[in-house]
Each structure stands twice: as structure tokens, then as C-alpha cells.
Write a sequence for this structure.
């Protein structure tokens, strides 16, 4: 870890575009401690067993067939950064096409530094990842676990490491179930995100694109929680409670960074999505709630998430 090398990489950002992605990766890894990745054979098998068990349980609860990625990677933080630079680059493509041309060298340095900080902060906080944006271009997708973060946060929360790791695995597999049930979903999310970012790059705000993206992600997180309630083979209210307390805590700077990265928004999506699907499942069961993934038109609107009765009236069995 070297802040000097990170700053130098940003200062030396070059190229024709508004972001130097080579420098982004170099700066982010230089500013981030990779963390230990000394897995024993039994621990590595533990990750694989958790994913297998989660797939079986989530299939049983959801009533749908789906596959988990063939590639299951247990990573350190540098591995996670390397795996996500291309995803960030694709999401930010509109900025590259429509970004500002005034003082391009200064803009490139600022943009490169911003992306580097975002990747570094996320690399220190992500526990597991099933990235739906990887699917939009038909790429081979993978399930990632950032082992140093899982180990650190399990110790900070004073919870059993194996149990905490299993909880993370079940949560990520529920996302695999969602995107397996809705092949159109990854493209829908990426399209809405690109529309919103393109508008920002052009100097305007596409509120509708961001509103639809937020509603879709709220549905994604809420349905995952619904499946977790039925699939996880242990009580986990204590894990959720401790994680929520950790997210709300921290020093003012940490709280500011979380807000800037939208991590507070993600918590809100969990809470609103869970309340929506609890209400829908109480009326129609999990199978009825799964109708959300039949086609894009079935996704709830922001208004319907706040009032599930409106979705139930619009989307009939």
C-alpha cells in the first residue's frame, strides 16, 4: 500500500479520454491494502459448500431453476479492484463520449482520481458480489467473495466467521436466482444506468431513468431478502441488526463517503424492498411475488413500492 504511488498514478493520468482507466486501477490498488488470502483447503471448500447449499435451498424456496456461476472466486481487495475496473469503465462510457472538453488534462486527472477513490473505498467494504452488469454484454459471470473483508467484519461484529461467510453466500446466490429468473433484467438495469449517466454527462438530469433504476434495484434487494428469510438455514436477525448498526455508525468522514457512494441509498432499498415483498408474499406467496420477474412491465414503480396494494391490483396472477 503506497499513497505516494497512488497520487503519482493519478497525476500522471494520460490519454485522449476524460478518464485514464489504467491509472484508475493502478492508483486504487496502490492506495488499498490487499489483505491476507491464506485460505486452508477446508476454508476454500467451505465457500464452495456454502454456495452449493444456498443454490439448493433457494431453488426449493423460490420454486425456480437457475444456475450459479461456474467461476467462484475468493479474492483479496486487489483482485476485486482488477475484476471491477472494466465494469466501471463500461458504466461510465457515456462520460467518455460526452464528457467536458474544457481543460481536458485537469478534467482527466479529477475524473481518474474520483474513480480511483470510489474503487478503493468499495474494495474495503464489499463482502460478496454477484455483478448483474457483467451479464449485459453476455460475458462469463462470476461470484466473488472478498475474504479479507469478510474476516475483518466478522471480527468487528463479534460473530462466527463460518456462519457470517455462509450468510453472505446465501445472499449472493439469491441474486443469481433473480437474474436467472429474469434474463432481461441485467440489460434493463444497465440501460437505465447508462441513460442517467449520459444525461449527466450532457449537463442535464434524467430523473425518470434514475427513478426507474432505484425502483428496480429496490425490487432486486427486496426479493433477495424475501428468499433469504425462507432459505437461510439459521436465524440471522442478529447478523442483520449488527450490520445495520455498523452501517449507521462510524466517524463523520466515513458517513460522508458512504453517502457519496450511495451506500445509504442501498440500505434504503433493502428496507423498502423487503417491506414491499413481505406485503406481496403475504397476499400471494413467494410464487406470486416472483411475477415481478416475468417481464419488465411487472417491475413495481416507486409509488407501488410505497403502496404494494397498487401493484397487486395492477399485476394479476
Amino acid at each position: 500500500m503506497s499513497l505516494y504511488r497512488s497520487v503519482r498514478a493519478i497525476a500522471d493520468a494520460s490519454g485522449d479520454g476524460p478518464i485514464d482507466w489504467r491509472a484508475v486501477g493502478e492508483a486504487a490498488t496502490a492506495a488499498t491494502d490487499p489483505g491476507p488470502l491464506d485460505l486452508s483447503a477446508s476454508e476454500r471448500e467451505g465457500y464452495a459448500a456454502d454456495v452449493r447449499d444456498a443454490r439448493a435451498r433457494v431453488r426449493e424456496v423460490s420454486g425456480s431453476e437457475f444456475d450459479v456461476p461456474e467461476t467462484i472466486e475468493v479474492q483479496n481487495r486487489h483482485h476485486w479492484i482488477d475484476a471491477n475496473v472494466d465494469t466501471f469503465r463500461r458504466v461510465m462510457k457515456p462520460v467518455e463520449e460526452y464528457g467536458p472538453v474544457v481543460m481536458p488534462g485537469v478534467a482527466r486527472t479529477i475524473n481518474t482520481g474520483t474513480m480511483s477513490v470510489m474503487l478503493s473505498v468499495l474494495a474495503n467494504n464489499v463482502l460478496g458480489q454477484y455483478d448483474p452488469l457483467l451479464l449485459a454484454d453476455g460475458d462469463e459471470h462470476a461470484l466473488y467473495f472478498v475474504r479479507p473483508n469478510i474476516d475483518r467484519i466478522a471480527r468487528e461484529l463479534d460473530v462466527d466467521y463460518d456462519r457470517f461467510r455462509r450468510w453472505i453466500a446465501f445472499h449472493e446466490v439469491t441474486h443469481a436466482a433473480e437474474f436467472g429468473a429474469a434474463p432481461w433484467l441485467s440489460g434493463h438495469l444497465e440501460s437505465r444506468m447508462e441513460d442517467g449517466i449520459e444525461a449527466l454527462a450532457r449537463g442535464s438530469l434524467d430523473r425518470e431513468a434514475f427513478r426507474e433504476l432505484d425502483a428496480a434495484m429496490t425490487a432486486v434487494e427486496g426479493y433477495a431478502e424475501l428468499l433469504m428469510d425462507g432459505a437461510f438455514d439459521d436465524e440471522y436477525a442478529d447478523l442483520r441488526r449488527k450490520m445495520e448498526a455498523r452501517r449507521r455508525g462510524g466517524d463523520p468522514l466515513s458517513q460522508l463517503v458512504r453517502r457519496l457512494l450511495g451506500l445509504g441509498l442501498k440500505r434504503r432499498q433493502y428496507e423498502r424492498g423487503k417491506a414491499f415483498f413481505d406485503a406481496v408474499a403475504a397476499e400471494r406467496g413467494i410464487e406470486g411475488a416472483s411475477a415481478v420477474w416475468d417481464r419488465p412491465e411487472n417491475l413495481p414503480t416507486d409509488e407501488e413500492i410505497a403502496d404494494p396494494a397498487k401493484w397487486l391490483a395492477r399485476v394479476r396472477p
In short: Strands lie at 71-75, 128-130, 142-146. The chain has one domain: 3-314. The domain at 3-314 is CATH 1.20.150.30 (Lysin).
